[in-house]
Known about the structure:
By secondary structure, the chain is of the alpha+beta class. 16% of the residues lie in helices and 37% in strands. The protein is built from eleven helices and 49 strands. Strand 39 and strand 40 form a beta hairpin. Helix 2 packs across helix 3 and helix 3 runs antiparallel to helix 4. 42% of the residues are buried.
Amino acid sequence: MINNSYLLGLYGGSAGNTATTGGQAAAPRVRTQPTPPWEASAKAPKPDVAVRAALSARQLVNPDASRSDLPGASPDYRKLFALYQGLTSLTALATRIDAKGITQGEVTRIRERFASGVAEVGDFVRTAGFEDIRMVHGVSSTSAKTSAGVARDATRIVTRPIHEGDPALSAPALEGPVVFDITIGSVAGNVTVPIDLAGMGAQTRSLDNVISFVNTKLSDAGVATRLGREQVNGAPRTIQLGTKTITLPTAADKWALVLQGSSAETVRFATTQTSDAVYVVQASGTAGGNELLKFQSDGGTAPEPLQPSGQTGWVAGRASQTALPKGVETVRASAVAADGSLWLVADIEAAPGSQPLKGERDVALMKLDPTGRVVATRMLGASDTASGYAISIAADGRVAVAGSVTGELEPGVRIADASLSDSFVTVFDGAGEELWTQRRGARAADEATAVSFGADGRVYVAGRARSAMPGASGLGAWDGYLQGFSATQAHSLAPFKAAAVSVSQFGTSGDDSIRAMTVEGSSIYTAGVESGRVVVRRFTPDANGAPTLSATRDLGAASGDVTGIAVSGGRVVLTGTTRNQALDVATVTNAHSGSSDAYVASLGADLSPAAGDRLTYIGGAGDSSVADMKVHGGKVWITGLADRAVGAAKDVPREGYLTRLDPLTGAVEWTRTWPGADQQASPLSLAVASGGASVLDRLGLPQGLVSMGDSKALTAATALRPGDRFYVSSAEGSRPRAVSIAADDTLQTLARKIEQASSGQLRVTVVTDPLKAGEVEALSSARMQRLSIAPREGRAGAILTAGEAGRDALAALGLSPGIVAPKAAAGEIKTFAMALPETLSLTGKDQIRSTVEALRAAVRVVRDAYKSLAPGASRPPVTGPAPAYMTAQLANYQAALSRLTG
């Protein structure tokens, strides 16, 4: 008998269940693989049973419990079946947590079991030791590149646009008195080049002529630095009319100045034409963007700012408008350092420069020069989420940042509950290098909302806690707290060791909070809302820094909130928002408007009620609010939302305001209001810089030293923290070796560590991002450098495995766990990558959905691996047209079959 299925099988056909001639039964199918648990004949447990089993089982992945119904089958089958069971158990848990009617207790148990189960699956894949296949928890690739990078030092800085139109025509920004110095530093010393555009005489002050004038001065001084110009064209202009988008005529060309420096020179700008500057960070527009506004205060000698083209909501006195990097979610605090640089505390959901985060949201400390250019960014490196609430700058330049963090932060530090927020404080030196971090948490949630440096060098942190802070006792629901920290060094090169030296917890039996704090001499002042009332407290620290409560002032029902507190001229200044028309202050200089008003209170230093106390309300017929405050030169600056209609919807236009007033008389001395993009402006923070505005703002140039580069340490440039790590093992099988991040690691030192850990299997190099279109090497700005990883010639490659939760370096480097190996040749062991991300989470609907999808995709990979183990599965299929001789044979066979079957 001739078997037709054999003929069809030669070219991928199938005979199905066609009966053989003569009524003979088909031969029984010979099994070559054990029955997998996903076969229809295998009874899958019901979802509720699978969840109960997963919650009660000691192991989700247990090869000993997996059965094979084919004697002598490869042990890889039992391992695959065990892996399949683990993945389906995790899927059942992830599906159950999103079900209706689930209790909070069950949610907690599922999340805990899921987290441990994910770790169990990862450990199993790393240690299972498959014989005929290679299973990888992550991805499989022939090369990898870190998305995290470190910028090369720049020699070229481009300013914001300063001129519109023909660069050969007169530029308004260059008219009038324009006098400044350029100091060029080199190994030979400093050379100061004075620039006074009056020296151009009757020559037209066009952009081209001014550049030529300045460059002649620089050339005569024998320095290499030069000025240039660059065309900067914005996006096409459109307006929306109903459902139609109308394109507007192209705007005139815009031109920016270019500072072309040299790697051998430093550049510093200085001028005597200065005035005070006020920086306001605001959320603007409906798309959620954030921007920095720079205002020039009255007084001083700086010329009035001109209105640049293309800026939204411009008002007189505004010197610049600069968009903050994408990924900045919000900014809650800002401060100006002695060198005039601006520091911001931002919550980020994506790091500037596309640097990867370790978790969902992180805190970034951002340093900006006086033009608004970001010159440094330091990420906290939280493994889950973090929020920044406060900043303080010490007289010696140190910068302290405080806030809350959820999940792991510091290696080896135990936390009570990874799902609850803890307070943190991090101190940096003036260059932005981290000195120390402390995380202090109650058993329940807590957060740090204020931070200040004491005169003795200690750092004081205030906030609120849901239960007792370590070393203190809880009083009710949310309590206020005040902690002191000190740090020491064994020697000048040793790391700092910080510790809490004091703690005080206070408040009422209700909900209490601390919104602001300041330190003045030997006094610490806190302000907040306690059981719905505005309360100011004064503490006096002893020789060891332990604070003792010395005075309390209750100003009455808050009906709003507290924004800030400061001490000026021996008096305590308090600001906030309230609907209370009768806060308990002796003299009201300006009456309440009847809606929600901003308020400024001036109190005695001992907080005792006195006739000299003053209260000023600021508002109109609508609701006004205070987002931030600063006291400068005895005057109070406040910013916030101005006079919105009571009960207005979110899409109703919002206007921001900036006001300076005298806290003793209530006189408003300077004020501006403005709309934002899409008529939406929401001020977030403000900072004041003495002499921070100048004639240089017209040129888009900064006062002070021009930053051309930043630290090359990975812990400074990325979200990596010292002690973070990952593991490397040979693709051929070897014990994983840890690659740990040191505080001074660079791309170059990390590349050597990875090569050594791979036992020479990998080649790791530092590569530079390619030039952008039209760029040339000599004129390029700072380009990013990253690590490129590939298997060495003739080597099997290596497997990269994530580090422990909270200290995984792969996430911060932007590398996916998995194998980096050459493409497998015919007959070689196949690699199956499950591509399970390290971010599997059950904390929200979107995360649950993506987690379930990832787990189901991993299950499909397991089933593919099972198929590959079938005998002959690795044999390449026969494809293409049949040879002529075989075609003739097939025709003869078919003719014979026809005769046999009639």
